[in-house]
Design a protein that fits this description.
The protein is an alpha+beta fold and about 675 residues long. The chain has twelve helices and 40 strands. The longest helix is centred in the last third of the chain and has 32 residues, at about 540-575.
Length: about 675
């Protein structure tokens, strides 16, 4: 028997032990939850409480329909080969066109949904949807596969260095879907169907919205949280290298930078500045007076960003209290250590643990130490490195969190880690919160999380990958993103080939939401507290590269008011500053296929150069407007493809004309 129950905003269907609940969840959006015996209301996820909307619910004998703005959901009782199932279909309200529909795996068993019991109320969960010819799928966080359209791929739903799992996808068919589960699993975007899998969880939970790409992104921001306003200083240039070893070295770099008359907003203190991992304090031998250092830098208009890791050395001063209070991540079996590390003073690898960011008391504890040892010195910008967390081996099922078993909640960790710093800063009256994170999940943006693409190679192939990765991050709801300019692993400052790469990477980086140099330059050194890396200042790459890089630094300074205007739009409307062409030109079929160009805001069209020796490239110009080349003065009609010059002095950038012609003077004064 199938039983339908409805109220003014929801449908609930019971078939045997399965309970399916569909409810209006924000403008043009619904949330779907399916459980065994009941729907659990309070499992961890990304969704915020929705604002009420005008919703119409209609019922018939074996079906029900929910209409919420642009989205209609139909659920019907279906019987095939004696198997009974409630099947869901999502439609465009104005035309009745099918956007997405569930699909059975087999005519007998399983159906569109699978609960494969693992005991104690947990199951392997599967949710299947139909595939559609010509559909393109975007978002899903940040990945290193080098594609923008992810149709045809299988992606692990797990956090890794360089692989940021944000399970939200945007479809060219006019819908967005959030898999609202932090469980470890995967998504399969195959030609014969789409399948979402959670390895071990208690219920299926997802959210669907409908509209244009811009409308989908706005609804998603409403559902998971808007990014706060970006502070103005954060749109400037951030200087970093693998490790500045001490206070004098760091101050020397800043003084040299400013003596050359170069713009600088942020200087970074990376790892091993601490006494021990998990002590969350400066080593006084290397940093004898950090308060005086911060005061000097503040007078120079330069912010200090410091690296904070979530891992804890068992010999650090905080380990015993964290252990006694149960504030470390536990394990299902074995001792509660999660990764090896070579820390200061020991000369050998030792096991370290992670604090449990899903525990409110643990978040309060780490903030109390960070506040006392950094914030009270004037430091207010946080680099939350290794916050996947970076466990080894990657056995998430062996982890036990305050929020639940690792297999069910592990992907939540980077969100909750950023939350500790956001709530800590807001609690002491600081409204400008920027946490620079190597990982994230759905909702990270509401806690002031900025992402970067992790420890990537220093190659042109890697640069090509970053272009796609950054666009998908923006489509996943995170407007603050950047890369290690020049790549992280490698790069010889004396190599002519590498010098060309870093110039091209700077030219791309100037049009990213955040603008930051970082990297582990040659010569390489083994992991440990003696690491520093090769030189990585803007003057480290010879006179020709230096001249080109200085031009880019000054270009970014001229563009900062425009960048900040796009950041305000991101805060208010959920529209990422850096985005694929189809977001602004959804009616142009070609714009859905272009993967190596992007828009910075509505008026700048960027075509990065991502190959050694390349001095021109094809550029697609979306229709409906003219495009001005600021370097030649020529105006080109939209709806065409041009060959644009790309000398080593600049990459192709075109300006929407005539609406934004004034920007041409910023690009080529």
């Amino acid at each position: 028997m199938t039983v339908f129950r409805t109220d003014h905003r929801s449908i609930e269907v019971t078939t045997g032990h399965e309970v399916l609940r569909i409810e209006s969840w924000g403008v043009d959006s619904v949330r779907v939850r399916i459980g065994q015996h009941r729907v659990i209301p309070d499992l961890p996820g990304a969704l915020l409480p929705p604002k009420p909307t005008d919703t119409v619910v209609e019922t018939a004998t074996d079906s029900a329909r929910l209409v919420n703005g642009a989205l209609t959901v139909v659920v019907e009782r279906r019987e095939e080969e004696a198997e009974v199932e409630a099947r869901i279909r999502f439609e465009r309200t104005d035309t009745g066109e099918e956007l997405l529909a569930e699909q059975r795996a087999h005519f007998w068993w399983p159906g569109a949904r699978l609960f494969l019991s693992q005991g104690n109320g947990y199951a392997r969960l599967e949710q299947r949807f139909q595939a559609y010819p010509g559909e393109r799928l975007f978002g899903l966080g940040q990945h290193t596969h080098g594609r923008l359209d992810q149709k045809g791929l299988v992606l692990d739903l797990v956090q890794r260095n360089g692989e940021i799992n944000i399970p939200f996808l945007l479809s060219s068919r006019g819908y967005g879907l959030l898999w609202n589960s932090p469980a470890v699993g995967r998504v399969e975007l195959a030609d014969n169907g789409t399948r979402w899998v959670a390895d071990s969880a208690r219920q299926i939970d997802y959210w669907v919205t409908a509209g244009t790409p811009a409308e989908i992104l706005a609804r998603y921001a409403d559902a998971t949280g808007h990014a706060p306003p970006l502070p103005d200083w954060a749109s400037g240039f951030w200087q970093s290298k693998l490790r500045y070893r001490n206070q004098a070295e760091l101050l020397g770099v800043v003084r040299e930078h400013l003596a050359r008359g170069l713009p600088l907003s942020v200087i970074v203190i990376d790892f091993f500045h601490w006494t021990h991992l998990g002590s969350w304090k400066f080593d006084p031998v290397e940093w004898p007076d950090p308060a005086a250092m911060v005061r000097e830098l503040d007078e120079l208009g330069v912010k200090v960003m410091v690296s904070i890791w979530p891992s804890v050395n068992p010999l650090s001063e905080n380990y015993r209290e964290l252990t006694d209070r149960g504030l470390l991540v536990g394990t299902e079996s074995g001792v509660p250590f999660h990764a090896p590390w070579v820390d200061k003073g020991y000369g050998t690898e030792m096991p370290v643990a992670f604090y449990d960011a899903t525990d409110p008391q643990a978040r309060e504890f780490i903030w109390s130490r960070v506040r006392r040892n950094y914030h009270d010195l004037g430091i207010k910008v946080w680099w939350l490195d290794a916050c996947e967390p970076e466990i080894r081996p990657g056995h998430h099922a062996n982890l036990r969190f305050h929020a639940g078993p690792g297999a069910e909640v592990a992907n939540l960790y980077p969100v909750e880690h950023a939350r500790a710093f956001y709530e800590g800063m807001r609690g002491v009256g600081d409204d400008e919160v920027v946490s620079f994170c190597r990982s994230g999940w759905a909702g990270s943006q509401r806690y002031g999380a900025a992402l970067w693409s992790g420890d990537i190679p220093a190659t042109f192939a890697s640069l090509r990958t970053q272009v796609r990765a950054g666009l998908n991050v923006g489509l996943s709801g995170i407007p603050w993103w950047t890369t290690d300019i020049g790549g992280f692993h490698g790069g010889d400052p004396d190599s002519p080939a590498y010098r060309e790469l870093i110039v091209r990477w700077f030219q791309y980086g100037a049009f990213c939401p955040l603008f930051r140099l970082h990297g582990f330059r040659l010569p390489k050194m083994p992991l440990g507290p003696e690491m520093t890396g090769g030189p990585n200042e803007v003057w480290s790459y010879g006179p020709e590269a230096y001249a080109a890089i200085v031009d880019v630094l000054r270009l970014r300074e001229r563009l900062r008011p425009y960048v900040m205007a796009q950041m305000r739009t991101a805060h208010e409307q959920g529209l990422p500053p850096m985005r694929p062409l189809f977001v602004d030109f959804p009616a142009d079929p070609t714009s859905w296929t272009v993967e190596d160009q992007f828009l910075l805001g509505p008026d700048l069209l960027i075509a990065p150069v991502t190959a050694h020796g390349q001095r021109e490239r094809a550029v697609h110009l979306p229709p409906g407007t003219d495009w001005l080349d600021p370097y030649t003065g020529h105006t080109h009609a939209g709806g065409t493809t041009i060959r644009a010059a790309a000398p080593l002095t600049h990459i192709p950038v075109l300006v929407r004309h005539p609406a934004a012609a004034h920007l041409a003077l910023l690009l080529n004064p």
